[in-house]
């Protein structure tokens, strides 16, 4: 049985159009990526119920949630159950035979990162995906936390970029659909500022606002932070759980200092450029390698100015549960102090524009670091 079509869907029209175009061109293999809570499953559910897709595949659309799988046989078993196959120890070949001999089908593997992430199961999962995509009549969509596609699969081009936060207008529409339009616009925007326009955060906070009002929720946020929207039982209704799952990724575990970098970035709303990452001299052995890990897991992102940033909910989660050590803060404090000294020394000269530009790019960062050091 397919999950229901989302009743609230805003801000993903461009991605939806791109995906539908890939379906028009043939039998696509699509990876929908992004950080936890960014709306990957919602987009996929919208695709599977779209009239064009439903007409093309009719009853041969299979939506498999992969959260409970920890190995290739378990994943094949989940798929087999949706196909109505007889249970067995390993249904890999039965699944492949079913799709090979059947009509054109669409297979969706939602939250595939659960079984793909562990390094011990990754090779066999990628081999299984490769075999699935050898079937010319089988369209495949996967959703995964992060920004990294499994290898061994001829993903259809152009690749879909990892889902970004919603645009402000779309975020407002989503909020209003849940909490009504009776709230002052400035208070709504203040609430949205806490979410980083992450759909999961918007949904959870909007439901609370609907019950308690904006002012009460803004007041509670001051003390509760992300705990306010972390009472749910799974990652679709619990923001902290969603973030924690990403933090426990084997990719993070294999590069422990990536979490140290994430912790210091939690104090830096303006983010850092590659040059600043190196100039600051953090006690991190391979800081650009750590940056790459954060990008691959979508715990951080690179903005239009190529500055490494972290979304508000993740920043708040890190500051609350994994604050940066003094050894990480002091290099940042020293770096900004030297920047301010440089500005003062060049003030009124032709050399003054460089420090001014760098200070402007780090204005909120400097405020936060100074406040943290007081």
Automatic annotation (TrEMBL):
Keywords from the named record: Hydrolase
Official protein name in the record: P-loop containing nucleoside triphosphate hydrolase protein
Domain Novel STAND NTPase: 6-144
Provenance organism: Mycena alexandri
Recorded superkingdom: Eukaryota
SUPFAM superfamilies, sorted: P-loop containing nucleoside triphosphate hydrolases
Record GO terms (molecular function): hydrolase activity
Sections of the chain in a coiled coil: none
InterPro entries in UniProt: nSTAND1, P-loop_NTPase
């Amino acid at each position: 049985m397919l999950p229901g079509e989302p009743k609230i869907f805003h801000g993903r029209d461009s991605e939806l159009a791109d995906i539908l175009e890939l379906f028009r061109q043939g039998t696509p293999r699509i990876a929908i990526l992004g950080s936890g809570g960014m709306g990957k499953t919602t987009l996929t559910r919208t695709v599977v119920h779209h009239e064009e897709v439903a007409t093309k595949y009719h009853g041969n659309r299979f939506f498999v949630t992969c959260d409970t799988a920890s190995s290739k046989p378990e994943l094949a078993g989940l798929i087999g159950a949706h196909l109505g196959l007889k249970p067995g120890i390993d249904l890999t070949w039965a699944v492949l035979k079913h799709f090979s001999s059947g009509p054109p089908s669409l297979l969706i593997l939602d939250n595939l990162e659960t079984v793909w992430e562990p390094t011990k199961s990754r090779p066999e999962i990628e081999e299984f995906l490769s075999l699935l995509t050898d079937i010319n009549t089988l369209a495949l969509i996967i959703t995964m936390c992060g920004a990294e596609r499994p290898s061994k699969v001829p993903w259809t081009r152009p690749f879909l970029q990892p889902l970004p936060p919603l645009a402000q207008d779309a975020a407002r529409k989503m909020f209003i659909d849940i909490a009504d339009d009776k709230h002052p616009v400035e208070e709504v925007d203040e609430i949205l500022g806490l979410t980083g326009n992450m759909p999961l955060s918007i949904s959870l906070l909007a439901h609370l606002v609907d019950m308690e009002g904006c002012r009460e929720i803004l007041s509670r946020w001051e003390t509760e932070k992300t705990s306010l929207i972390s009472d749910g039982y799974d990652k679709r209704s619990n923001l902290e759980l969603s973030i924690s799952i990403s933090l426990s990724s084997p990719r993070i575990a294999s590069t422990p200092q990536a979490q140290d970098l994430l912790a210091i970035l939690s104090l830096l709303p303006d983010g850092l450029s590659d040059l600043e990452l190196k100039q600051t001299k953090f006690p991190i052995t391979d800081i650009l390698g750590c940056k790459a890990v954060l990008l691959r897991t979508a715990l951080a992102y690179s903005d239009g100015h190529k500055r490494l940033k972290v979304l508000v909910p993740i920043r708040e989660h890190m500051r609350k549960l994994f604050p940066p050590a003094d050894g990480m803060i002091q290099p940042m404090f020293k770096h900004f102090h030297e920047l301010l000294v440089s500005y003062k020394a060049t003030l009124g000269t032709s050399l003054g524009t460089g420090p001014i530009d760098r200070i402007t790019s780090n204005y909120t960062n400097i405020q936060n670091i100074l406040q943290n050091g007081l």
